[in-house]
Amino acid sequence: MKKGLVAFLASLMVLTVPMGLSGSSLGSGQTVYAEAPGESGSAFDKRITQRFDTDLVMDHIYYLTEEIGPRVAGTEEEKETAAYIQDQLEEYGYDVSTQEFDIANRLSGTLISGEDEFAIRISPGSASTGEEGVLGEIVYSGLGLEGDFPAEVDGNIALIQRGEIPFWDKVNRAQEAGAAGVIIFDNAEALVPPTPSLGANQADVPVVGITKADGERLLEENMTAVITISEVTDQVSQNVIAVKEPKGKKSDDAEIVYATAHYDSVPYSPGASDNASGTGVVLELARIMAPYPTEKEIRFVFVGAEEIGLVGSRYYVSQLSEGEIARSAANFNLDMVGTNWEPATSLYVNVVDGAPNQVWQSASGAAERLGNDSLILFERGASDHVAFYEAGIDAANFIRREPGTAALEPWYHTPFDTIDKISESRLQEGGQLIGAAIYDFARKEHPGKGKSENRRATVSGAYLLNEDQTAPEAR
């Protein structure tokens, strides 16, 4: 990507967004705010807050984003991250286990013009290419309407703008005109390309989406390009688990508390906020809590393949025995807890059904003790807490959002999710609060509260698996 294009895209991230708190419902979720009178925290809280080392968290984030980079499910980079997490946990004195599981086949590819590689999203209905790819001139074909395809598109690559008609109609007409490949560029400014959905249709040629800026650049410079797409098969991902045993109890008698984070990222993204931040904080909490006795068992679970549909967390929960499920008290899931995007002043506690379950109660209690007024209870799926909720376990996801809109940072799932977008003060605030909540919950018996009244039997529902997920786009 040329420097000018990077600068242009970076300028799109300078947004003016209205601030302020509101108690109204947001999206599908009801909102509840935690109130914090500003107490200093208990001696037990201080075991966490005074030992929490943000520098160590930043070291983890640096290694994941700068030394490894994008950590796509099933890749060597994801495996390297799992090995790093295991090494860290073993240094803290834990016995560590891993779970390996299969992941679905996927399409992987590149769009290269000259010396530049462009960020793409591959259509789920795209054809694959050979190793050499499809080479052709870029031929502008308007919106892909009848009459928009010049004769020169035959044997070359059709560049089509998004809008007016479904993606499939554009692709089908391009094929009929003899195009060897199709590039669809967005019709609105965005940091990430669109994913051209072809419905149930399968194209005979490679089909990719690119941003509006990249499409206009290809159009202006009359480039040639190579599209290469291949199916990646027989891949696996892995979960990494460290267990803190309860004091003076057989492990099969104690309740279980789960502290979880996913460590994979989407393609092209270093994933500093999403989710090296959550991974780094959970690693730091594992370090801090290692020497302290607790009544409950704590499992620190780092899951792979979250970004392709919560695969790792669902696999992990599916492998729990009936006895383990019965002993499972709560899941504290950390996902995107350190963004420096100024409007994201609130730490949302996302619960799938929006109920103030034990995780919310523990977190809001810690917030009150620590004088923190940043918490908002919200109805939302879209992270690994969903897997635990589906098994009837009280679960919540902690994530930074803008109060009043529940918006995420504009560089979410983009190449701009880099370490310079991380706030050390927010890492510390969130890590101390969530750590105090977990430790307080785990160190006490909490008689009669192993299952909250809001806890439910195994369920499934129409909730998001990913923040990118929306109703299927036809155009």
TrEMBL record:
Residues 136-218 form the PA domain. Keywords: Signal. InterPro entries: M28_fam, PA_dom_sf, PA_domain, Peptidase_M28. This is M28 family peptidase. Residues 239-435 form the Peptidase M28 domain. GO terms for molecular function: metalloexopeptidase activity. Residues 445-456 have a biased composition (Basic and acidic residues). GO terms for biological process: proteolysis. CDD domains: PA_C5a_like. It comes from the Bacteria. Residues 445-475 are annotated as: Disordered. Residues 1-27 form the signal peptide. The keyword Signal applies.
